[in-house]
């Protein structure tokens, strides 16, 4: 729900006014890329999430921790299904296929990632087969509830014995399905022979029509935040769980049949269809700049051997240099040529490289500052002096360089509303030389008497709540005030697949059905703040101290002010008189206010309806204001309101 209100509804009694005088100059620089995104392939945010592939388990990929499985494929017409490593594999990367045998019209069907969205649009598909068969393949999308067929096509077989052959097809539904409980089916007429299938793929139209691309509506939801950067490919996703398989850039490239996939950090085999090139396409398509994470020699867990020695780390430093050559090298370099061969002769745009993820955890701090970070910092800056290197510890224990080559750090915080608000001034005194980027933040637990830190063994919020979103607004304004020290902010995690998730709250929740996407209350705050950026912060002097009102002011040139404010923990409405230097009486201003619909009862948002479906509950109103004498705008905000005034 996202309603517009024409009038201000006030219930509480007003307290004494806050006078604020905003100067036109004299502040700190604002970060050119304050609001950004963080991506972690947490339970089906990538596969089954933003990566648009509709078929779940398309290539029977497996590994020691996650052996390949037939699930969720099902037999059709009495087919007998078996996984096989045939003596002739489809590829080295994809050795396992499904053997389908039986008699009559048989086949296999796939339910997608908890459903398949069927619309009147063109779906493109492909699959590989091995086995002598001269008949036809019949492909369809149909309801698994009513068995209504929405699209089908028939394809002559090119299948051969002892050799893999690719088939490609299109499906164009005649009408949209009423829900996403649909399945994809391949059938053939079997007279006793058998066929092996592998790499069975089906894509809907993707964002900007990228082959092997992303889901349009989830990309549009990201775009609407006006993001400026994307931190990728994770977080914990980089590191590899106890299973010790870090993310490997060089195994996520090229044709899908050459990608083995990898045992991911979140308990399943990743297809790696969303690979390094796709992450860069994602950045290009959203026009955001990448912050590239590289593995820094620490696996998750704390047991012996989870941190590499300097000697064992050296090949990984070289591997990172190879990766950077792939991204930045010209076409005459080894890896630049590889990039060109994959269709991108121009180097990618990259200015920021983050070494690892949260390397202060799991006893990683000492080795990180002693040798792990310096090895990467020295090698990378020697080869690429213009790259900014970011440490992952969130403090300044691992540092490199000074001046324009000074390293930055990535600070993460998961918190409670009161605690985050109390940290409004956190960045007032941090380093200006070694800058901070906030690669992950979120309010995840409710306030608790005498407890300020998050208790990780206790439940977290199921969804972002409004009091948390207001606290996030307050805290991000504290960062914006220090835009010369804090270079970016990214809420985390970005995505939640409502059918399978391991972490809540999340910014955007989704299912296979695009109509069920939920943009959280935290999303609404970031959307408002990210759409109202400024080039420079300016002094905003008040006769009131911060709390319950918090604010930041900035400009985008003469008379173009952006004033942000949020009210947290007030017992009454708060009247403002904000005077902007250089603004004449009669100048128009626009005040956009976000609030919870039911005022002070702010802890049930987003909320679930009776069927367990998450619904949005943020409200937004826009007021037109006119400056009084002296360039003063008067307005009033209620408790737990977040507002932006622009002139
Ligand atoms: C295929 O080979 C892999 C790797 O050797 C093995 O783990 C897996 O069990 C094999 N699968 C089948 C169905 O034989
Ligand atoms: C597939 O399974 C059938 C039935 O078990 C078997 O006859 C056939 O040889 C298998 N195909 C391959 C390629 O091994
Ligand atoms: C179709 O629905 C039936 C239950 O009605 C379920 O058992 C089956 O797993 C579903 N199959 C697919 C492919 O979704
Ligand atoms: C349709 O699919 C959704 C999600 O996959 C599931 O929760 C729901 O129960 C299904 N509906 C029916 C009627 O099977
Ligand atoms: C990818 O790089 C790693 C580390 O350098 C190496 O061990 C591995 O063999 C490479 N994989 C491929 C497919 O080249
Ligand atoms: C690559 O090498 C060729 C041949 O030496 C040269 O003509 C070309 O300018 C080089 N390209 C780049 C981008 O350096
Ligand atoms: C590094 O930055 C400087 C100054 O912006 C620029 O002149 C130079 O070309 C850059 N070097 C590389 C290798 O990108
Ligand atoms: C909000 O109000 C409660 C109750 O008065 C108080 O305990 C808490 O410290 C306040 N929080 C902030 C951030 O002002
Ligand atoms: C909370 O802290 C106050 C002051 O330190 C103390 O008096 C009180 O007993 C504490 N309450 C609880 C529930 O621990
Ligand atoms: C995450 O996904 C994997 C694979 O689908 C599944 O085994 C695991 O249970 C999921 N976790 C949760 C909490 O749903
Ligand atoms: C600029 O940063 C300093 C902290 O170094 C802070 O005290 C000041 O309020 C900031 N100025 C503005 C205009 O936000
Ligand atoms: C700020 O000044 C205004 C008068 O301009 C006054 O009404 C108000 O009470 C003052 N607020 C505080 C918190 O002192």
Polypeptide structure, described:
- It catalyses: Hydrolysis of terminal non-reducing alpha-L-arabinofuranoside residues in alpha-L-arabinosides.
- This is non-reducing end alpha-L-arabinofuranosidase.
- The protein is 16% helix and 30% strand.
- Helix 5 (310-328) packs across helix 6, helix 5 runs parallel beside helix 7 (365-383) and helix 9 packs parallel to helix 10 (521-530).
- The radius of gyration is 27 Å and the shape is globular.
- Among the domains are: 18-29 and 535-646, Immunoglobulin-like (Sandwich); 74-203, Galactose-binding domain-like (Jelly Rolls, Sandwich), CATH 2.60.120.260.
- The relative contact order is 0.14.
- The chain starts with a strand and ends with a strand.
- It is of the alpha/beta class and 647 residues long.
- The strands form seven sheets. The chain has an eight-stranded parallel β-sheet. Strands 4, 5, 6, 7, 8, 9, 10 and 11 form an eight-stranded antiparallel β-sheet that branches.
- The protein binds 2-acetamido-2-deoxy-beta-D-glucopyranose (12 copies).
- Residues 83-85, 95-96 line the site of one 2-acetamido-2-deoxy-beta-D-glucopyranose.
């Amino acid at each position: 729900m996202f309603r517009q209100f024409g009038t201000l509804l006030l219930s509480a009694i007003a307290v004494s006014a806050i006078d604020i005088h905003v100067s036109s100059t004299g502040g700190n620089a604002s970060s050119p890329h304050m609001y950004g995104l963080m991506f972690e392939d947490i339970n089906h945010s990538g596969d089954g999430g933003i990566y648009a592939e509709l078929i779940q388990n398309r290539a029977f990929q497996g590994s020691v921790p996650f052996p390949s499985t037939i699930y969720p494929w099902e037999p059709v017409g009495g087919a007998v299904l078996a996984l096989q490593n045939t003596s002739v594999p489809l590829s080295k990367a994809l050795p396992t296929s499904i053997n389908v045998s039986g008699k009559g019209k048989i086949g296999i069907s796939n339910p997608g990632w908890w459903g398949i969205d069927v619309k009147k649009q063109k779906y493109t598909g492909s699959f590989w087969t091995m086995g002598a068969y001269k008949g036809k393949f019949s492909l369809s999308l149909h309801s698994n509830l009513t068995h209504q067929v929405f699209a089908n096509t028939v394809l002559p077989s090119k299948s051969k014995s002892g050799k893999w052959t690719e088939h490609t097809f299109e499906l164009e539904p005649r009408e949209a399905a009423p829900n996403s409980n649909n399945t994809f089916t391949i059938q053939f007429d079997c007279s006793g022979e058998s066929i092996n299938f592998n790499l069975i793929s089906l894509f809907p139209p993707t964002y900007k029509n990228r082959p092997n691309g992303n889901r349009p509506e989830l990309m549009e939801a990201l775009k609407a935040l006006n993001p400026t950067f994307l931190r990728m490919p994770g977080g914990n996703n980089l590191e590899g769980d106890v299973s010790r398989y870090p993310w490997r850039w060089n195994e996520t490239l090229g044709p899908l049949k050459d990608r083995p996939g990898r045992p991911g950090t979140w308990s399943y085999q990743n297809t790696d269809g969303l690979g390094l090139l796709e992450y860069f396409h994602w950045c290009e398509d959203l026009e955001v700049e990448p912050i590239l994470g590289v593995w820094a020699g620490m696996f998750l867990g704390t047991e012996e051997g989870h941190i590499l020695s300097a000697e064992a780390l050296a090949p990984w430093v070289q591997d990172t240099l190879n990766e950077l050559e792939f991204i930045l090298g010209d076409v005459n370099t080894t890896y630049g040529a590889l990039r060109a061969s994959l269709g991108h002769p121009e180097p990618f745009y990259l200015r920021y490289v983050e070494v690892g993820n949260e390397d202060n955890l799991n006893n990683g701090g000492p080795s990180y500052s002693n040798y792990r970070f310096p090895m990467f910092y020295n090698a990378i800056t020697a080869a690429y002096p213009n790259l900014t290197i970011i440490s992952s510890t969130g403090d300044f224990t691992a540092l490199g360089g000074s001046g324009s080559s000074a390293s930055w750090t990535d600070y993460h915080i998961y918190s409670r509303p009161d605690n985050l608000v109390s940290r409004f001034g956190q960045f007032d005194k941090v380093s200006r030389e070694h800058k901070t980027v906030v690669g992950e933040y979120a309010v995840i637990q409710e306030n608790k008497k005498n407890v300020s830190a998050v208790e990780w063994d206790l439940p977290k919020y199921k969804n972002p709540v409004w009091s948390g979103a207001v606290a996030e607004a307050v805290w991000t304004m504290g960062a914006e005030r220090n835009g010369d020290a804090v270079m970016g902010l990214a809420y985390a995690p970005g995505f939640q697949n409502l059918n399978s998730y391991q972490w809540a709250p999340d910014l955007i929740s989704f299912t296979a059905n695009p109509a069920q996407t939920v943009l959280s209350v935290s999303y609404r705050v970031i959307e408002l703040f990210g759409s109202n950026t400024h080039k420079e912060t300016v002094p905003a002097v008040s006769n009131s101290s911060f709390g319950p009102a918090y604010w930041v002011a900035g400009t985008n040139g003469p008379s173009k002010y952006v004033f942000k404010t949020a009210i947290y923990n007030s017992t009454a409405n708060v009247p403002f008189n904000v005077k902007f230097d250089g603004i004449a009486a009669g100048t128009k201003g626009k005040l956009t206010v976000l609030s919870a619909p039911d005022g002070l009862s702010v802890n049930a948002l987003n909320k679930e309806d009776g069927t367990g479906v998450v619904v949005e509950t943020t409200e937004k109103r826009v007021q037109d204001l006119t400056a009084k004498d002296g360039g003063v705008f008067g307005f009033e905000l209620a408790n737990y309101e977040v507002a932006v005034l622009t002139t």
